[in-house]
Amino acid sequence: MHGQTARSLSIPEPGLHDKKLLPSNLRSLTSFTRNYGMNVDGHTNTLVQVASHTPFLEQLHLRGVFHFPVTEQIQPLRLAYLREVDLTRATISYRDFQYLCGVLCESPVAILGIHLRKPLAEWQSALPVFPVLRRLIFCGDPTIAHDFLERLPKSTLANFTIEHEDCMAEPNAYGSLLDLLHERFSDSLKSMHLDIGDPPIDAHNFLAYTLAGLIPLVRSGVEELRYTMYIDVSALPEVLQRALDPSWWPTLRVFLFSRQSQRLSRRQLEERKKLWGPFFQQFAPVWENVPAVEGAN
């Protein structure tokens, strides 16, 4: 591997203590955990080893359950080339996430993917939160997305995606989220994607409410707008059908309404199908020949 660029590496936790596993010219690292009982020092050491041995790292992906110490004294790690951090498949508490924000606050992270399941209560760190972030992919509840966006600097975010997970889609929650995006990021935001997936109970009202909430953002400078919801467009009122046509948004460079969700949960389901599909297919002839249970409906 000497003399060549190590583009990508996936290795399990804990520790990453073996320096040989972390070539200094590594560009992309995926670290995954399988041990729920690992202590916080082990996971902290992972980040220390990464910063020590991979100075040119550009992409960091964490997968599995991660824990970090609860402390007010966070020492930032300097990863001068780190541009992208993916935490969408990492299970972390808000305290763990707060620690990560502090550790990475001096790294030039421009792209962040996260899946937060609980509100960011008791935020105590005074360190800046991803000060040069340009693109955010947020998986989860729009209320939690709102909490996180309030902690970002106002002038950098250019691309925002929310993949709705973990709760019912409520119009008011999305209304508050869109209001905050307009209030804090109207000078920088250029691209948005709302991936709602399955329609809420009152899908027509939800769609009308959120489309109306997007208008101020478009007027302020958003150039690309994507909206995903599994809904029968032909059954919508005529005014909503017109609002989903690109001609309704003449100032946009890109407008796309899609019924094909690419949310995190959907991607994980497709991955499981690919992984286990061949296994179940080999038993399909066996199941077909199993006699039906008498009396079964």
From TrEMBL:
Source taxon at top rank: Eukaryota
Name the record gives this protein: F-box domain-containing protein
Organism lineage: Eukaryota, Fungi, Dikarya, Basidiomycota, Agaricomycotina
